[in-house]
Write a structure and sequence with these properties.
alpha+beta; binds coenzyme A; globular; single chain; eight-stranded mixed beta sheet
């Protein structure tokens, strides 16, 4: 599909350490940003790392969602949603041996043709640096590696252009997203 071709022909900013689905971790840059303290003797490396691990601290995730003003959801349901998602992607700031959850996304799927991406979020401290795009790229790469060819999502109106910049199209060929809610 044209979409995949466009998206993945771009130069990769991530390097894979372990290709097994569900466990691999990518460096955002392939290189660490090394900082040194005042004495210059201790080097604290800082990296952005992506992961598909599912064992996410629900309170940390709630904190991340709070930070962007999302309404709270019952943790037991969030836990269930994560357990039943096809793909769970998280993005971490790693400094020394401390890591902080700074981004999250997940996808549900029929495991063959279709996947739908949900809950895409980047902490406000890290927005506007290309990390949302890197997270989406990571998610799409994982879905593509599972031969999923049809990826959909529901964009809030203020982020339509964010997704558009990655090749997502609103209403392709007139297709409409339709919703049913209990009355
Ligand atoms: C939407 C979100 C994930 C974007 O993450 P981010 O790290 O700030 O995005 P990036 O820095 O990677 O931006 C990538 C591109 O999208 C553009 N972009 C980012 N946020 C945008 C927005 N809200 N509207 C339009 N364009 C946007 C950037 O300008 C950039 O364009 P460029 O590639 O031409 O430079 C982040 O703002 C967020 O978590 N928002 C709150 C939660 C939310 O609304 N999630 C989406 C639910 S559908």
């Amino acid at each position: 599909m044209g979409f995949w071709k466009t998206w993945f022909s771009a130069s990769e900013s991530a390097t894979s350490r372990n290709s097994s689905f569900g466990e691999d971790t990518l460096d955002a840059t392939g290189n660490s940003n090394a900082n040194s303290d005042n004495s210059g003797s201790t080097r604290i490396t800082e990296r952005i790392v992506f992961s598909t691990e599912r064992d996410i601290d629900l309170y940390e995730l709630e904190e991340l969602c709070d930070a962007v003003g999302w309404s709270r959801r019952p943790l037991r349901k969030v836990k269930k949603a994560i357990e039943h998602s096809f793909l769970v992607a998280s993005m971490w700031q790693v400094r020394g041996n401390h890591r902080r959850l700074i981004g999250f996304a997940r996808a549900t799927s029929d495991h063959a043709f279709n996947a739908t991406i949900w809950d895409v979020v980047v902490h406000p401290d890290f927005q506007g640096k290309g990390l949302g795009k890197a997270l989406m790229k990571y998610v799409l790469k994982k879905l593509r590696s599972e031969e999923i060819s049809n990826v959909t999502l529901f964009a809030d109106p203020h982020v339509v252009d964010f997704y558009r910049s990655m090749g997502f199209m609103p209403d392709p060929e007139g297709i409409k997203g339709m919703f049913w809610y209990p009355h």
